[in-house]
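In this section we turn from sequence analysis to structure. A common task in structural bioinformatics is to predict how a protein folds when a small molecule is present, because the ligand can shape the pocket around it. The inputs are simple: the amino acid sequence and a SMILES string for the ligand, here adenosine-5'-triphosphate. Study the lines below before reading on.
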Amino acid sequence: MTNIHMGDGIDSNFYVDLEYADFVQTQMKTVTERGRAAVKQAIEKANRRDQLKLIDEMIVEEFGQKVLSRRYSMKEAAEMVGVSTETIRNAEKDGRLPEPEYRADTKSKQRLGYTIDQVNYMRDVFGTRPVKPEGMNAIVIGILNQKGGSTKSTTVVHMSHYLAIKGYRVLVVDLDAQGTTSFSYGKLPNIQVEYWETVAPYLLREDDDDEDGTSYSTLDYAIQNTHWGNVDIIPCAKDYLEVDMNMAKNWSSERPVDMIMQLRKGLLQVGVNYDFIIIDGAPSLSVNTMNTVSACDTVFTPVPAQMFDLASTVEFSDLIDKLIETYKSHRIPVFENQRIVGYKDMPFMPNLPSFYHFITRYSKSDYSKAMETRIRQIFTTEVTKVLKNEIYRSDEIGKSSNQVKSVYEINPGADTNNRGKLKSDIEMLDNAFEEMLDIVVDEHWK
Ligand SMILES: Nc1ncnc2c1ncn2[C@@H]1O[C@H](COP(=O)(O)OP(=O)(O)OP(=O)(O)O)[C@@H](O)[C@H]1O
Ligand SMILES: [Mg+2]
């Protein structure tokens, strides 16, 4: 610490002298210069062909152009499609299906395996692809908990892959300015994704069409393809935070119910092209929380089997309570000749979803089991239920997330040296997602 000499009457709790500030500044410059030099060196080393490559470009190159390399064997494909291997072979022979691709690295003729897009093509050919019932909306599922790090994004990514593997058409909606889920789908927040690509302009009703004619009156502008043929995404980036600031401002000037229902309206409109819409919510409380909660048909809240996480998750229930209270306290204007002549109670509430919790980061330890009992006691009521299946703490999920992949994207054998563990973890997730799928289908499509 340098010797700080403060003049008389200056409180050193709040001020430092100019000399010291100069000193700090020079140190910061040193760090910046050293840091930049190190980064530059690393870039040059990594890519001698193009020494001026920017780090953003390098990241985009590594993570921003994702391909799905997972291939399914003939047996797996047949099971997924719901026909026999014989039926597939025959269709490949008689031209209903394209000729199979073969491996280049084996002497005998071995099938390369099928991509999920090829499996879905087969489903279309054989008429076995699942679709939502005629006349029904896409089901809007929210994975919400204001507790940070409670596995929301991991759940959203894995659930979307699970549903895509089943053949459903899925729209993932990232509403977290951190953009973790967007990143998993190769849409790099703040590098490739900015304000105009997020839900923000639609929510804030940016009325003017863009110079290039883009309209923000529906969410169509925000939908992007992904490396999964049947998954699209509306990505997010830090600019999305503007929604919170501006919505709060608009709160008094706009009709609140319209504002709250804006997201649901937009999602159901674009939902004609999808079976499921899955929302990744932000770990924050905001005006926007109302839009998010009321946009959903069903909310699944992850509860990690740890006391601190449980404590924060309980506050999510309080948040829903407060949200309903806010809805109740809103009075709507009475119009006469287009002028407000008074206010009355709302005759209805904005949409409320059904609420479920599921236990995550679970293990076989006594502590985990004790936490499970508590969680089930606390969160089981007439309107909130706890799912039967737990999601276990999994090294495979951790390892695959290091590669910015879900466990469903890993090729067993090629990408992992722990095939058995990968298989059992996928089964564990399949069970949890199957339970969620059954619930939402029962509630909303029957
Ligand atoms: N079942 C699991 N077992 C082990 N690790 C997991 C599991 N699920 C998620 N993780 C890891 O936990 C970390 C936090 O997960 P995630 O980012 O999904 O949480 P989040 O709720 O979306 O966080 P935030 O509130 O910051 O958005 C990640 O590193 C993820 O890989
Ligand atoms: Mg997240």
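The chain has 15 helices and ten strands. As an exercise, try to locate the residues that line the adenosine-5'-triphosphate site and compare them with your own expectations.
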